[in-house]
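Q: Hi! First time doing this. I have a protein sequence and I read that you can turn it into a structure. Is that right? Here it is:
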Amino acid sequence: MANAIRIFVGWLAAAIMCANGLPAIAQSPEPSEAAAREFDRDCMDDYGRDLCDSGRWSAIVSSFGLEPAERVQEQGWRGVRVFTIDGYSRDMPMVSVLNRGTEEYGFPIDPVLEIRRAAGPDEVKVAVPLRREAWYNLYLEAMQLQELVAASPVRQSSSTASTEMVDGEEVLNICLHAWVTVTESLTDRGVERRVRNACGEDAMFDAGYEMSARSLRGFPHCNHLDPGNYRNESTQLQACMNLDGENRIAAAEVLTLIEGAESDGWAGLAQHLARGARMLMPNEEPIEGAGPVSAALVAQSGRRTRPYISWVTGEANRVVASGEVWRYGEIDESAEFEQVWMRTDGQWRITELIVNPFRKVPPNDE
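A: Yes, that's right. Below is the predicted 3D structure, encoded as structure tokens:
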């Protein structure tokens, strides 16, 4: 239950489970039948996207730059595609393990592991898929996941109880911010699709969720990211797909330093400044030297300013981290920026920080 918040409705006082994953008991009326019809836990993610709706699902698959599973199956591919959605309805990296069938002794033909990230509606640059030959044990795990799909009911609620006994009292289990997996199994018979969530003990959800951890091992540069900066392997894969350039290990090293300083906003970057660092702010004179730039970074942090990294591009001894910096206030503002890092005496240092003109951010009315 590590990827969902659960509330039990029973006879004790209202409470929400704490971060250690222990459930709590809450006093609340049971949801009405109308409310139950509005939100279908077997098909919907946290924000109510209906993953069983063919049109909605087609759009999600397309956002990954993928063809429908039925078309891929017709092309002779067999195996699994696992789509993971976090507890706030954000599409995480998709993992597929596919092959062209098996040889005489059961070894897969052309086994391929591929990881893709969904493209946002305003995203200009699309992440390049991570792709390599799938190793034999990963192929076996994909086959085991296919067996779970074939043996499981279409709807999760058919196998997961919505009530539990707590201290002899039957209570209703309400699950919030659950992670969700959608597993597509491509076999000779066609395509089987299963939606599962973290709101119960479900072997197929666990196996699909673990595919991110299994596949992470296949890409060494992804493992140069500090796992302590991420909730799980799926979010680590998401960050890994922000790495680009001829030296993605260098990019991963720098992204680890940036994320390690994030808790202090821009002020946290001061410890990584080169002696001759230079900072360019819009409509201001250039700031030069580690001391003055450090003071400017601290001042920016005091303005409720926060940077967000979009891409980290690595070369042999140079890395460029780019993204947007936001200033929060009565009117939010954002600007594109770049950090230039150079390796000096074995350490990565910021040599230049460039912030483009700020623009007002329209309020989000959703």
